[in-house]
Amino acid sequence: MRSLRRKLMLGISFLVLIFMLLFVVVPYLIAGPPTPLFHVRNHDTEVHELRVEIYDLENNSVLDKTYELSAGEDIYQAKSFRFRVPGFEIVDYTFKFTLDNMSTETYQTNIQPWNTVEVELYSEYAEGHPLSIGEITV
After folding, report:
1. Of 27, 71, 116, 125, which one is least surrounded by beta carbons within 10 A?
2. Alpha-carbon span 128 to 76, nearest angstrom
3. What is the DSSP letter of 32?
4. Cα gap 77→84, rounded to integer Å
């Protein structure tokens, strides 16, 4: 009886290992490491303050951080564990970007291990077009 139970537990452990390899390890081998949560690039010649807020579907805050970007500076935000595992969460998140406490843009997306929200700050700030927001998927 114990031998049968031990074989059953070994079989279940083996199946769990195979599933982990198929759904976690193999995608990492094919696509590489997860990309950043977001990437911001300041193309302007001025220093800007950018507040980044991320909310889930229930409007719970996932991130609220303010960055000061010098001219030509890039910043990246790494993904937390829950966004690094394929299929762990499949819900939309709202990104809210506020530039210099004056201009606010939002972007909604489903966060996966290999997609990154790209934000570009441009010198047309005075002309009303300071932010360009998009998404890159590997």
Report:
1. 71
2. 25
3. -
4. 13
Q: How far apart are CA 28 and CA 38, in angstroms?
A: 19
* Sign of the CA dihedral with 57 first, then 33, 68, and 126 last: negative
Helices (H), 1-138: 2-20, 26-31, 81-84
Say if residue 56 is exposed, middle or buried (CB neighbours under 10 Å; 0-12, 13-18, 19+): middle
pLDDT computed for residue 54 by the predictor: 96
Dist CA 94 CA 75 (whole Å): 19
DSSP 36-70: PSEEEEE-SSS-EEEEEEEE-TT--EEEEEEEEE-
Partners of 118 in beta bridges: 39, 134
| Of residues 135, 103, 136, 129, the one with CA closest to residue 43 | 129
Pairing of strands 38-42, 115-121: parallel
Two tokens, residue 100: 């210099």
